[in-house]
Amino acid sequence: MPHSKLDLPFTRYLDPDGSLIGELPAWADDSNLLTRLYRQMVLTRLFDQKAVAMQRTGRIGTYPSTLGQEAIGIAVGSLMRAEDVLVPYYRDIGAQFLRGVRMEEILLYWGGDERGSAFVDPGCAEDLPICVPIATQALHACGVATAFRIRGEHRVAVTTCGDGATSKGDFLEALNVAGAWQLPVVFVVNNNQWAISVPRRIQCGAPTLAQKAVGAGLHGEQVDGNDVLAVYDRMQWALERARQGKGPVLLECITYRLCDHTTADDASRYRSAEEVSQAWREEPVKRLQAFLAAHGVWNEQHEQALIAECQQRVQQAVDNFEALEAQAPDALFEHVYAKWPAALDDQREMIAERIARRQAASAAPAAKPEEPRLRLVSGQKGGLHHA
Ligand SMILES: Cc1ncc(C[n+]2csc(CCOP(=O)(O)OP(=O)(O)O)c2C)c(N)n1
Ligand SMILES: [Mg+2]
């Protein structure tokens, strides 16, 4: 575990084997709460497995798994209030589900469908969509938090990102404005040790990522990101502090990306099997399960019933997703601008004409000349070519 030369706090309650280190905070006496956290982590993991399988069978596009990082999202999502705003990145399904984002919306998003960013549940209607451009969401969160400040609302913007994202200018600019204006924002860093194939140790010279907060005038600390109790405890504190106008917080959650970066990656090309199997010994789901079992509130029967229930819920989401008709291709223009920019009229018309030509061609294939089709040409740079 890295230690800060600045002596920033590091919190852990559960050892990798689930045994307790020291005394738990009072909120953890509620065994219903602890089993709820566990159930949500299992649901997230099972959905995640299914999403990977759906990509492998060509039913969605590229998908970034959250395997091994479930504790972070579950703690964040469990604690945020409905009126807060989540500004997520692409490894946040655990938090998003708890906010009210539907599992089928996540499948829609990775299936290239705009409805995956237009959340139906009013509980998350103001949350921002998944952000793929690295670290840009940190600035959006500061914008949201500035609006809360101007309106005098006691709401908090929570934004998440990876370890690699903390090396980007956008992230550092966001920290700066958050510190300068003491905004009600919490930055949650999922330090999963890798930014695609770049390991944490060569991304940044600082011993911890949490200390980036210090230079910007924020409170920063580290937490064991595989110990959901630790993340929950520090996140609760951070949210409360930000809500009371006492300033922003950066929480560095130390975890490990047990999966490939995305389904388009093969992590075995750049990291050792030993490293990954060592990391499996620290993973968050088994850790909490062992703790709950040792305290007599979880057993094999509960586990089997939970798995069956989660699988049924995941399958229902898949069925809902697959029953939806595909969106019209020009839907890609929707939801982006509050006020349509006239400069994009040409592009929209071009797509509309193209769709109309295709529809006419498929209605009467023999009578119409074939539209040039896109196909993959292997071995050529770029991959996509007109056939
Ligand atoms: C602005 C930008 N640059 C590059 C990329 C390509 N890219 C996608 S994920 C990624 C690494 C991100 O690593 P990290 O921040 O640690 O998050 P993780 O994926 O590990 O959760 C990069 C460079 C991108 N999506 N956006
Ligand atoms: Mg990372």
UniProtKB/TrEMBL annotation:
Catalytic activity: N(6)-[(R)-lipoyl]-L-lysyl-[protein] + pyruvate + H(+) = N(6)-[(R)-S(8)-acetyldihydrolipoyl]-L-lysyl-[protein] + CO2
Domain annotation Dehydrogenase E1 component: ranges: 38-324
Keyword Oxidoreductase annotated: yes
Region (Disordered): 362-387
EC numbers: 1.2.4.1
Keywords of the record: Oxidoreductase, Pyruvate, Thiamine pyrophosphate
SUPFAM superfamilies from the UniProt entry: Thiamin diphosphate-binding fold (THDP-binding) (SSF52518)
Job of this protein: The pyruvate dehydrogenase complex catalyzes the overall conversion of pyruvate to acetyl-CoA and CO(2). It contains multiple copies of three enzymatic components: pyruvate dehydrogenase (E1), dihydrolipoamide acetyltransferase (E2) and lipoamide dehydrogenase (E3).
Assembly notes: Heterodimer of an alpha and a beta chain.
PANTHER family linked to this entry: 2-OXOISOVALERATE DEHYDROGENASE SUBUNIT ALPHA, MITOCHONDRIAL
Name by which UniProt lists this protein: Pyruvate dehydrogenase E1 component subunit alpha
Organism: Pseudomonas schmalbachii
